[in-house]
Amino acid sequence: MPNISQRGLNMPASPIRKLVPLANKAKAKGLKVYHLNIGQPDLPTPEVAMEAMRAVDRKVLEYSPSEGNLGFREKLVKYYAKFNIHVGVEDIIITTGGSEAVFFSFMACLDPGDEIIVPEPAYANYMAFAISAGAVIKTIPSTIDEGFALPSVERFEELITPKTKAVLICNPNNPTGYLYTQKEMNQLRDIVKKYDLFLFSDEVYREFCYTGAPYISAFHLKGIENNVVLVDSVSKRYSECGIRIGALITKNLQVKENVMKWCQARLSPPLIGQIIAEASLDTPEDYMLEVYNEYVERRKFLIDGLNRIPGCYSPIPMGAFYTVAKLPIDNADKFCAWCLSEFEYEGQTIMMAPASGFYTTPGLGKNEVRIAYVLKKEELGKALTVLEKALEKYPGRTL
Amino acid sequence: MPNISQRGLNMPASPIRKLVPLANKAKAKGLKVYHLNIGQPDLPTPEVAMEAMRAVDRKVLEYSPSEGNLGFREKLVKYYAKFNIHVGVEDIIITTGGSEAVFFSFMACLDPGDEIIVPEPAYANYMAFAISAGAVIKTIPSTIDEGFALPSVERFEELITPKTKAVLICNPNNPTGYLYTQKEMNQLRDIVKKYDLFLFSDEVYREFCYTGAPYISAFHLKGIENNVVLVDSVSKRYSECGIRIGALITKNLQVKENVMKWCQARLSPPLIGQIIAEASLDTPEDYMLEVYNEYVERRKFLIDGLNRIPGCYSPIPMGAFYTVAKLPIDNADKFCAWCLSEFEYEGQTIMMAPASGFYTTPGLGKNEVRIAYVLKKEELGKALTVLEKALEKYPGRTL
pTM here? Predict the structure, then answer.
């Protein structure tokens, strides 16, 4: 039998994935499992999107252009303009989910061995795409005690080497829900400019900002227009993660040209997904507002509830639909596994994402979990009760 | 402005892509352009597939499992069994097109610097995926004069180094239409076994074999079950290239485990595409037969027509819907560009794929083109006339 690749063996398996068999067992035992672990909104996909899919009237489901359908990209130009992001249709390349946009950004901009600086905790799959591209992620810890604010310029500069080619941010942030301030974005702009770096900015949660504080896109920053590669996705805002449609947006001609080579290699993004996504851009304002208000309420409900549980602490997330909370426990990996395998409260239990998967610095996030508020308030309430009861019983409780 | 990646700059742009602007100009001038260059079938997507899409009755278009929907994979087990390919549902991983299956095969099995032996001419995008994975493709020329038969064992052995980790074939072949014989497949089996290599086998055209000669899958070969990674796609057989659904099939547990890590990183394959592809497996036999008969007729018509043009030669392709033909010209890149930019016959011209894009050995395929028979016979006839007239006028004609 041939030897398997070391690269594959070295790729870390996500801590959530390890919990999946435990969750399945819990369900098989008849337990109700509240999924606080996932980023799949429970809200309905807009009707206008579903209708567009049903109305597809083509004889052949052909390849679409490698850069995506022109009509869809034209509508995206108008969509971004609403957020004061002024890009041309030629700056937008449609990808197979935001995931592919991240991967193609790395492939197009970086060479093997190049380094990307990422504030952590960070979306775990960035690491996988970096490994795929042969790039190296260097993380700077942000801390729950500072509410996950952007680390200081000095911390960035400590990590910069001749191999440093990019900074990667997610704003609003998955997993922390943090929204970078104008001052923080200016700090990033200055670093990027001073060291001539790419700024990869994952802004898929822009629609979900709750505090009145402005959403500052990387494209709002002056003087670094050629450094910015924006990653986007329709998955979260229209609750259509399954269609796998995202976008990579850049004004940098060389980057575009390189990205297109990878786009052409994989031929085209999903056709039906593009039709659905294009129609989604016409989602009525009242749907968007309803979704927004729903998340606002859930967020308040969840965070208040978490902070009421003795020994728990969650900063108030300003965007997205996640929070990273600190629990009075020895080890979140163990606690999350224990909840699924050894605990139940009135026939229920909870599945959460241990925060260890979002840090690369060993030991960080050990007593933290990511909680997504993609459940209805009533269910969130029950899940909070289960969490409180679990913490009371958990043998590894620290407080 | 940050420096762009060398990897991207080094990635070869496809020779077909360079022709696209010329084709657009020709169309803008009002010329009718016959597209002999593409692998997009003109035949209708099966009605049963379109109906399944229109009947989707879900509230949320959610992520599907990273390995693909279970129901679809179960139906694929039965589909493969019809071809005497006996695999379990756990051996099948759904991918975003056959393209992703090729890429994940490389990522999961190979480390940077590892070598893959590929008979050429070969599908140009294998090269792109190898570059993505940091792997190195070593090609062995097959020749039009030998009808593109598999090169001898000796030619393979000359290329084998300690870095050689895999052999990659496409069977039936794109671009040549060649179908490997039992003897050739046995030869591959022996090499793979002797040197402990992976055998990546792209078999997306299995439905299109025209000579009565049997289709031999890599999975039919005894004793190398753990070496085989099969690449599949529904694109060609159901004329649904746009839905981006393929599969990676392997019995090798380690490979599966590694592949799943990449699958999880990109979250899931397209949901609607899977629904369409699953329904396509129920396509009535008479549709499949009609499509098959249509290709049989076109193939005869095209090959006869080509061989009747003075100085042209095409071997008889045994499968797929392409042929590589030799033309009496100095340079196919120039000729194909000339047809689009400087030639017309009664308001018509042709677009073909220069074969240079399918070879990596410099100079090979210089007077060859790939022609796809994805047009109706009537259009193929007109295209053949245009080709004949073009060859008469072309200044770089050699015979």
Answer: 0.96
